[in-house]
Amino acid sequence: MELLIIFISASIVNNFVLSYFLGICPFLGVSNKLEKAVSMGLATTFVMVLAAMVTWLINNLILIPFNLPFLQYVSFIIVIASLVQFVEMFIRKTSPALYRALGIFLPLITTNCAILGLALMSVLREYSFIQSLVFGLAAGLGFTLALCIMAGIREELELAPIPEPFKGAPITLIIAGLLALAFMGFAGLITG
Amino acid sequence: MNIILISILTMGGLGLFFAAILAIAFEKLKVEENPMVEKVLNALPGLNCGACGYTGCHDFAEKIVAQGSLDNLRCPPGGSAVVEDLSEILGISADEPIKRRAVVKCGGSTSLARDRAEYAGIQTCVAAELVGGGPKACTYGCLGFGDCAKACPFDALYIGKDGLAHVVFEKCTACGLCVTACPRKIIELIPCSNQIIVNCSSTDRCSLVREVCKVGCIGCKICERTAPGVYVVEDTLARVVFEKGDAAAEPAIVKCPTKCIVKL
To answer: What are the pLDDT tens digits along chain A (192 aa)?
Structure first.
C-alpha cells in the first residue's frame, strides 16, 4: 500500500516535470515527436531506476557508515554521469536509429536535474531500497507521461492555425504552463 | 584530517570503480564502424560547419560512403583539394567543382548612400532591419552592423570604415553562413574566376535609387546593350552572367553611368 502511494505520488501528483519543474530541458527539446518522446522517456526511466538503486547503495553502504553525507552531491553526480555514459553506449550498440533520433539529448540526461533531484529526494525522505526503486520507476514513468502528453499535443499543433508570433517556442511554453496547471488538479489526492 | 583522507579514498574509489565499468563496457559494446567512414572523415576538413547540409563532418562522411560517389554532395570549405582526396579514397574520378567565394553586393558606403534616420537600438543588422527597415535610406543596401562578420567562422568578413561589409577572399571558403545571416540577402557566392560584379542589390526604380544612393543600379540597360548576353537586367537591377567570363564583361565598367559595375 505504501509503495502504491509512493508510485502514484511520484508519477502523477508530484510529477517531476509538471509539479517540481525538474527536467524541463528534454521536456521541451524532445517533445516534438511522440515516438522520440517515448524512447527518451524510457531511456530516462531506465537511468532513473538504475540511479535510484546505485545511489541508495552508495549512500547507505558507503556514505552513511563512513559519516560522509556531505559527499552525496558529488558522488551522485559521478554515478549519474557514468550511468548515462553506459546507457549511451548500450543504445548505440543495440539501436543506432534510436541513438541518432535522441542525438544530443542522450548525453544531456547527465545534466538532467530530474535524476539528481530523484536521488537527493529519496535520501531526504529516507526511503528503503525497495521504496527508492519504486520511487525511481514512478518518477521515470511520470516523466515519460509528461513527455508523451506534450508530444501528442505538439503533433496536433503542427496542423493548428497558430498566430504567427506564437509559433514554435512561445506556444510550447504556454502549453507547458497549462499542463502544469492541469496537473495541479491532482494535488490533494495524496499528500506526501 | 582523517575524514579528509576517507573522503578522498571514497571518491577516488568510486571514480575508479565507475571508470573500470565504463572501460569494460566500452570494449564490450564497441560499435564496428565502416573503416571507409573513418578514412573519409580524416580527409574532410573537420570544421563541422554544416555547409554541406549535414550535421557535422561525420554525418557527411557516412552519407558519402553510403552513396559511394560525390554526386550532389559538396564540401565548400574543403574545395577541390578535398574532392581530389575523396575521389582517391572512393576510387572514382570527380569533376572539379567551381570554387566560389562570397561577395557583398552593395557599394553604398556612408559617404555615397544617404541615411534616413539615426539608429541607436540593438547593434545588429537583423534588429535594425526590424525597426522600420533600418537607418539606411536604401532598403536593399548593407546595414553594416556585421551580422555576416559574426556568422563567419573563418573571420573572412569585416566591416570597413565605409560602413560596409567586406570579404577577405583569401579566407573565404564559400560555406554560405553569411548568406543566410544577412537579413537583406545581399551576399552572394560567385565563382572565384570572376572579378566583375554589379555592386548593387536594389530593385527599386531609377528615381528612387538616385534619391538614396550615388552608386546604385538604376536599371538603365546600358550594360546590357554594351555587352549583350553578359548582363541581364531584371526588375531594374543588372546582374552578370558569370559563365561568360570577365573579358566580355569588362567594356561595360566604364559605360555604367552610376559606376556600380566594379572589378573586385
So the answer is: 888 888 888 888 888 888 888 888 888 887 888 888 888 888 888 889 989 999 999 999 888 888 888 888 888 888 888 888 888 888 888 877 777 767 666 777 777 888 889 989 988 888 999 999 999 999 999 999 999 999 999 988 888 888 888 888 899 999 999 999 998 888 877 665
Task: Indicate if B184 and B197 belong to the same structural domain.
Answer: no
Q: Does B5 fall in a domain?
A: no
ipTM of the complex in this document: 0.73
Residue to substitute from A75, A77, A92, interface B, most B β-carbons within 10 A: A75
Q: Which of A30, A38, A31 is nearest to A140 (CA)?
A: A38
Chain B residues whose C-beta is within 8 A of a chain A C-beta are 3, 6-7, 10-11, 14-15, 18-19, 21-22, 25-26, 29-31
Query: For chain B, how far is it from start to end, CA to CA, in angstroms?
Result: 72
pTM of the model: 0.55
Would you tell me how many other CB atoms lie within 10 Å of the CB of residue B117? Answer: 13
Q: Which of A78, A87, A99, A105 to mutate to test the interface with B (most CBs of B within 10 A)?
A: A78
* AA letter at A103: G
Query: What is the residue range of B257's domain?
Result: 193-264
Cell of B245: 567570363
Q: Per the CB < 8 Å rule, is B11 touching A74?
A: yes
Cell 554589379, located at residue? B198
- Tell me how many domains chain B contains: 3
Of B15, B29, B31, the CB nearest to A78: B15
Looking at the partner chain, which of A67, A78, A93 has a beta carbon nearest the beta carbon of B14?
A78
Q: How far apart are CA A113 and CA B224, in angstroms?
A: 65
